[in-house]
Amino acid sequence: MTTETQEIICGPCDFREIAKLAVVWCPTCDEGLCDECSGHHRAAKATRGHQFIDSDHYKEMPRKMIEEFNKCPEHDEKYELFCPKHATHCCVQCVKEKHAKCTGITLLKKVIENIKSSVTATTIMQQIEKRMEGLSKLTKNRVENINRIDKQSSELCTDFRRMRKEIDLVLDEFEKELSEQVISVKNTQSSIVDNTIAQIATHESVYKEMYSALLKVLAYGSNFQVYSAIKKIEEKLMNEDKEIELFFKNDNGLQEINIALECSQQLSSLLTEDFSLATVRTSNSTLECDLKILDNLEAQNLSTTARTTVSELNIKQYVQTRRSTISYI
Ligand SMILES: [Zn+2]
Ligand SMILES: [Zn+2]
Ligand SMILES: [Zn+2]
Ligand SMILES: [Zn+2]
Q1: How far is the CA of 52 from the centre of ligand 1 (A)?
Q2: What is the CA(157)–ligand 4 centre distance, in A?
Q3: What is the pLDDT of residues 63-120, one digit of tens each?
Q4: Structural domain includes residue 315
Q5: Distance 101 CA to ligand 3 centre (A)
Q6: Which ligand is nearest to the CA of 100?
Q7: CA–centroid distance, residue 160 to ligand 2 (Å)
Q8: 77 CA → ligand 4 middle, Å
Q9: How many domains does the chain divide into?
Q10: Three-class DSSP labels, the chain
Q11: What is the Å distance from ligand 2's center to 69 Cα?
């Protein structure tokens, strides 16, 4: 008998309409006893052997769990019997109505007299332990996953930095090669042009010679001499024109040369905004967590060796292989 505040009231006193708090609990009588009543209880012949428990300890027990089987809700009678065939507790009326043909009906108190040390109690404890263990493994596993992601993130950054350095080296090498190419083109071209300028100078001097020769003949020569010089110069001019024509046709140094940087498409696209050099790929895999509980827990026979129920909380983590690959051009 309890109050709303979970205080235990003395049963016998309550019966006499006296409100008194219990100091002990008699599990046999299923009621609390005050100081005075517990004294009577110990002394009376019928209740002399009853073992009390401290009322404080009784209060600690989960009331909802332990009170449910006090009475049969259907017949308002105490559960006193046990049917081994149905492996269930029953009141006298239950037996009459539902277990009339069942054999081996026995006293519930007999069946459960060793329940505290029974396999069933141990098994149930183990089952709860296994589940708790499983759940704590699960928590550990989740924490490990976060730690792994942490490690993978720094590995990923290191990997990228390493690749970046490699790319840098490749680019350095390429730049060196490129400038060597430019110098070589420039050098080749300037030696060609030098040669061309020399050719032009040769032709120039031929014209200069003709010009000053004709000037001199015009100043001091006779008409005949001028005529003769003009004829010679005409002939020379024709030859010279042919040579000049050939020179214009064939000389490499007369080409207009421009040089420009032509990048490969990959390198150009690298510099566009929407080009992605690398991405971080997240891959998921299912955590396999089987909570297997045999469903015939209630069918256990309390009086004989209980079938051991097995609960398994298997956690298999498909360990992800590191998949954060980085692709680059
Ligand atoms: Zn009392
Ligand atoms: Zn008692
Ligand atoms: Zn009943
Ligand atoms: Zn039965």
Answers
A1: 14
A2: 70
A3: 777 776 778 889 999 899 999 999 899 999 999 999 999 999 999 888 888 888 888 8
A4: no
A5: 16
A6: 4
A7: 78
A8: 17
A9: 3
A10: CECCCCCEEEHHHHHCCCCCECCEEECCCCEEECHHHHHHHHHCHHHCCCCCEEHHHHHHCCHHHHHCCCEECCCCEECCEEECCCCEEECHHHHHHHCCCCCCCEEHHHHCCCHHHCHHHHHHHHHHHHHHHHHHHHHHHHHHHHHHHHHHHHHHHHHHHHHHHHHHHHHHHHHHHHHHHHHHHHHHHHHHHHHHHHHHHHHHHHHHHHHHHHHHHHHHCCHHHHHHHHHHHHHHHHHHHHHHHHHHHHCHHHCCCCCCCCCCHHHHHHCCCCCCCCCCCCCCCCCEEEEEECCCHHHCCCCCCCCCCCEEEEEECCCCCCCCCCCCC
A11: 18
Alpha-carbon distances of 326 from 132, 165, 197, rounded to whole Å: 40, 14, 56
- Answer yes or no: do 96 and 153 share one domain: no
The mean of the pLDDT values for the chain is 83
Inside any domain, residue 96: yes
Give the distance (Å) from ligand 2 centre to CA of residue 51: 8
Q: Are residues 241 and 161 in the same domain?
A: yes
Are residue 48 and residue 76 in the same domain, yes or no? no
249 and 193 assigned to the same domain: yes
**Greatest Cα pair distance in the chain:** 179
Q: 23 C-alpha vs ligand 2 centroid, how far in Å?
A: 13
**For residue 212, how far is its CA from the centre of ligand 1 (angstroms)?**
155
Q: For position 318, what pLDDT does the model report?
A: 29
Q: What pLDDT score does 159 carry?
A: 94
User: Does 147 share its domain with 194?
Assistant: yes
Residue 73 Cα to ligand 3 midpoint, Å, equals 7
Tell which of 81, 113, 145 closes a domain: 113
Q: How far apart are CA 189 and CA 251, in angstroms?
A: 12
Domain contains 294: no
93 shares a domain with 7 = no
**Which of 240, 258, 276 is the endpoint of a domain?**
258
Domain that holds residue 47: 1-67
